[in-house]
Specification:
The protein is mainly β. It has one domain. The strands form two sheets. A three-stranded antiparallel sheet has the order 2-1-5, with no helix packed on it. It has a two-stranded antiparallel ribbon with strand order 3-4. The radius of gyration is 14 Å and the shape is elongated. It starts with a strand and ends in a 16-residue tail after the last strand.
Length: about 60
């Protein structure tokens, strides 16, 4: 999901959505050692859903 943590409203983040809570979403990081998820910053407001599909052997191309 593309969202913004309420305590860092000027910084967009791309994270995995875990569940709805307190009028927003709890977001988790794929790299737990890096931090920067809801455990550190609390609830986030989500602005968009991002989907990446990758087929083995396919070359990346721009999606419109």
């Amino acid at each position: 999901m593309l969202g913004r943590f309420r305590d860092m409203a000027d910084r967009p983040v791309l994270k995995r959505a875990v569940r709805r809570e307190a009028g927003g979403w709890l977001l988790s990081s794929d790299n737990a050692a890096a931090g920067g998820d809801s455990a550190a910053h609390g609830v986030a407001d989500v602005h968009a859903r991002v989907v990446l599909r990758w087929r083995h052997g396919a070359l990346p191309r721009r999606v419109r």
